[in-house]
Amino acid sequence: MFQEAESDPKLSQEEFKKIETKLRVQLVNEQYRHIHLQDRALLILVAGIDGAGKGETINLLNEWLDPRHVHTIAFPPPADSDQSFPTARRFWLNLPRKGEIGIVFGSSYLQLFNEAAKKKLNADTLERNIQFIRRLESNLVANGVQVVKLWFHMSRAAQHQRTEELLANPSTAWQVDKHDLKAQKKFKSIRRSGQLIIEATDAPHSPWVIIPSADPQLRAVRTAQAVLQALKAPSIKVPPFHDPASAPPVRKPVNPLEKLDYTATLSKAEYDEHMLNLQNRLALAVRNKKFKSKALAIVFEGADAAGKGGAIRRVTHAIDARQFNIMPVAAPKDSELARPYLWRFWRHVPGRGRVAIFDRSWYGRVLVERVEKLVTRATWIRAYEEINDFEQQLSQHNIIVLKFWLSITPDEQLKRFKEREHSPYKQFKITAEDWRNRRKTKAYSVAAKDMFTHTNMPCAPWHVISANDKRHARVEVLKQIVLALEHDQT
Amino acid sequence: MFQEAESDPKLSQEEFKKIETKLRVQLVNEQYRHIHLQDRALLILVAGIDGAGKGETINLLNEWLDPRHVHTIAFPPPADSDQSFPTARRFWLNLPRKGEIGIVFGSSYLQLFNEAAKKKLNADTLERNIQFIRRLESNLVANGVQVVKLWFHMSRAAQHQRTEELLANPSTAWQVDKHDLKAQKKFKSIRRSGQLIIEATDAPHSPWVIIPSADPQLRAVRTAQAVLQALKAPSIKVPPFHDPASAPPVRKPVNPLEKLDYTATLSKAEYDEHMLNLQNRLALAVRNKKFKSKALAIVFEGADAAGKGGAIRRVTHAIDARQFNIMPVAAPKDSELARPYLWRFWRHVPGRGRVAIFDRSWYGRVLVERVEKLVTRATWIRAYEEINDFEQQLSQHNIIVLKFWLSITPDEQLKRFKEREHSPYKQFKITAEDWRNRRKTKAYSVAAKDMFTHTNMPCAPWHVISANDKRHARVEVLKQIVLALEHDQT
Predict the structure, then answer these.
(1) Which of A423, A462, B3, B123 has the most beta carbons within 10 angstroms of its beta carbon?
(2) Are residues B71 and A335, on separate chains, in Cβ contact within 8 Å?
(3) How far apart are CA B269 and CA A470, in angstroms?
(4) Which residues touch B211 (CB under 8 Å, ≥6 apart)?
(5) β-sheet bridge partners, residue A211
(6) Is the CB of B277 inside 8 Å of chain A's CB atoms?
(7) Which domains can be identified in chain B, with CATH numbers?
(8) A39: helix, coil or strand?
(9) How many CB atoms lie under 10 A from the CB of residue B232?
């Protein structure tokens, strides 16, 4: 794999001059096509032997391209406040928008591979990390982010020589850092781990390109060619990760809606008593010292008029308004459409000690977008695993994820729609669209059933609640939240 | 001013019930009008005596309004990484977008007044801070952010009683914090400072409303009424801060363009020598330890084809691509139009140790937007002081602000336009709009002259550079940057 690169091939000044002009014209023209089309983003991931000239080459790429539409991002060790969030959040929020080019050095995601390769991980962990990266890349490409990965490589002797030459000249010595000096000692292990990771994560839709780096001119040309090829490549159709025939992975069907008891009710007196007790406990739990290192993400889904808004108010009543944020989820805006689907939800992940409430959520993709045929079958099937990976990352970062499905019968919904039309507070809540959606109750039930089957993970369980009686539903929601927090704090 | 509030007026349960229903219907209906119109944002600033029930009332407001379009923001002491930026940045980035409501507790901006009032500042500093706040509020309103300020007040005895009652009940004791307990001792000084600041910063377009807070029901009603009134108020035309007759403040005219020597040139040999020297010095300066606590914001303005892009490349050549960010400034996008003009530039203020390069900038308002009549005369006149305040805040936060105007003669511009049309690298750089803009050279000269007159501050000086000779211009730009950094580091 590294044979060519380790032979340290060179390009003469003459050959370079001949290629350079044409290459630069092609590159800038392809970039402008990319900017104008705005049909995808290009993400360039940079890795390789330390001291192989990665930084220098990326600077040159910035000069050859129109640098105003190139964003070079390094991920230094996270600052204190960044650790308030899962590390992957920085990667997501920095993804280039369609029409732009992002160059990423040492993302948490590349760190992940380096770690996986260098440390003595057991084979299971390594395999799990590799599979996670493969899914992530496949999902990025399917979400309109073209991915190309560059590995800068040269022989050990050439690496030594380059470092020495840079150090010898005071005007270039600053380019050498401690990693470059260590690379000599660790050459073999870096080489071995690089090979392992490249083999495991090379894919037609997110290929690795090995850049021979001993000669600066050949290195520049090969890098530019790799970027050019990525810019010119037609958009790639990526099959869902699990099944090329667009079927979700096989899981035992779960349908909590079937056995739901809609007769559950609470009297006013019972409700008042429970509510007072639960709201006090919630107030204490979110003010508990232990909660300062945690966070809470609550998802509300369910049919129109199922009582999501009312339940949310009973929850927020017990929390200081400065501690929570409610995110009403509607159709994505332009800036959101220019990024992968989960980007806008990553933006609203709660920081430490905070509560984020989603009034509808990332499940829109497998509910309304599926039912209304706003996305392809392959897209919503892929979304189950994307969502599971997302929630798992939240959970691993001490964010408690609770998902509520408020369920009402069609008759009850009809009754509520009619009431809304006559209530001065609630008129604004009922629109023609709500009446239209009602006709698709069956399709939504099928989508909900599939959703429960594929996304009911132990780390982010669904709570399906009978909501024909509002008091019962509100008390149940509060109870589940309080129990989850109290369980976590004991 | 506090007479009514300190008489601790009450509302009977019966009266409250009568008012409540109507008020809530009005409130939610006005909020929906606000959401649908999207013609402005509403910013509610919350202040007052500690322990007067601010938090409780804001929670109630969240229940009475549709909380999904209300964002309650507290500004705790900044985290480490926030201190990487001027404190005002958090305030700006959290401004509600048009159609939304933002409730702000203890913003850096309110802290500013509290400090101004409490500490033994000299009269000049206090007056300067007050004037800054007055300009900021006036500018926010003129930028589509309606401002209403609430001061929660009650008698000292009532404050004491309320705190004791909350403490006595285990389910409400958490509502009392140390500030509430201290308020008894500091009652008089809080009262005095409140009075001073309210008088100094009350304005028709951003009024203070005193909320009598001893009785929770009256407090709720008065708060809701204040919000309702703000939502119902017609958009207010705010005159420029300095002059109701829409004239900029009187300053001695400065026109560096007049005496500019366009004959300055550099030979290829001189250029290469200077450039190598300056780029090396720049490389060292941005890698200097001292730069880690600073930042650099560089603005490039000038006519089309003046050589901004070429100059930027010579600057970035010496800087690691991971350390700088280039922001190309074009017409604002939807999400930017929904916020005050400077919002998008606050987003791109460089963090500590970083370089932000603006290819065109916030000066667009007093250049293209003025010349093309995209904004009113009052708006661009107001912008001079908005911009000066903005740059002053950057400078106070250790951000070195350098502004370059690259100047070319009309003949040279014509020559370059023609060259661009025939260059394979540069075809994309020339559009019909460039030819149109050329016809407005005079209007741009007048706008530039006014801009130099009103925004050439010692903390953020303009460097006007003759750019008919590209080599000369690039060397001059590098030289000014290097000198500013080296001067700062010695």
Answers:
(1) A462
(2) no
(3) 82
(4) B5, B48, B52, B57, B150, B151, B152, B153, B219, B222, B223, B226
(5) A152
(6) no
(7) 3-232 (3.40.50.300), 268-488 (3.40.50.300)
(8) coil
(9) 11
Computed over every residue of chain A, the mean pLDDT equals 89
Q: Residues 6 or more apart from A72 whose CB is under 8 A from it?
A: A58, A62, A102, A103, A105, B321, B322
Q: Measure CA B112 to chain center.
A: 15
Q: Across the interface, which of A28, A69, A72 has its CB nearest the CB of B322?
A: A72
Select the residue of B55, B81, B334 nearest A321 (Cβ to Cβ): B55
From CA A206, how far away is CA A233, in angstroms rounded? 11
Instruction: Give the Cβ contact number of residue A440 at 10 Å.
Output: 13
Query: Which of A71, A334, A359 has its CB closest to that of B334?
Result: A334
Tokens of A224: 């530019």
Q: Largest alpha-carbon pair distance within chain B?
A: 90
Tens-digit pLDDT profile for residues A72-95:
987 766 555 556 888 788 889 999
Using a CB–CB cutoff of 8 Å, tell me whether B74 touches chain A.
yes
Contacts of A424 in chain B (CB under 8 A): 25, 29
- Contact (Cβ atoms closer than 8 angstroms) between residue B397 and residue B83: no
Q: The whole model's pTM is what?
A: 0.87
Contact criterion met (CB below 8 Å) for A468 and A266 = no
Specify whether the backbone of A20 is left (phi greater than 0), alpha (psi in -120 to 50) or beta.
alpha
What order of strands is seen across the sheet that includes strand B324-328? B324-328, B355-359, B295-302, B399-407, B462-466
**Where do we find the tokens 């009450």?**
B10
Question: Cα-flanking dihedrals φ and ψ of residue B462, to 5°?
Answer: -85, 135
Q: Is B424 on the interface with A (CB under 8 A)?
A: yes
Spatial CA neighbour of A73 closest among B320, B327, B93:
B320
Interface check B36 vs A, CB under 8 A: no
Residues of A in contact with B171 (CB under 8 A): 276, 280, 283
Give dist(CA A46, CA A27) in Å, integer: 18
Query: To which H or E segment does residue A479 belong?
Result: helix A470-489
Chain B nearest-CA distance from A233, in A, is 21
Provide the ipTM.
0.80
- CB distance A149 to A47 below 8 Å: yes
Of residues B267 and A174, the one with the higher pLDDT is B267
Start-to-end CA distance of chain B, whole Å, equals 53
A428 at interface of B, judged by CB pairs closer than 8 A: yes
Is the CB of A67 less than 8 angstroms away from the CB of B335?
A: no
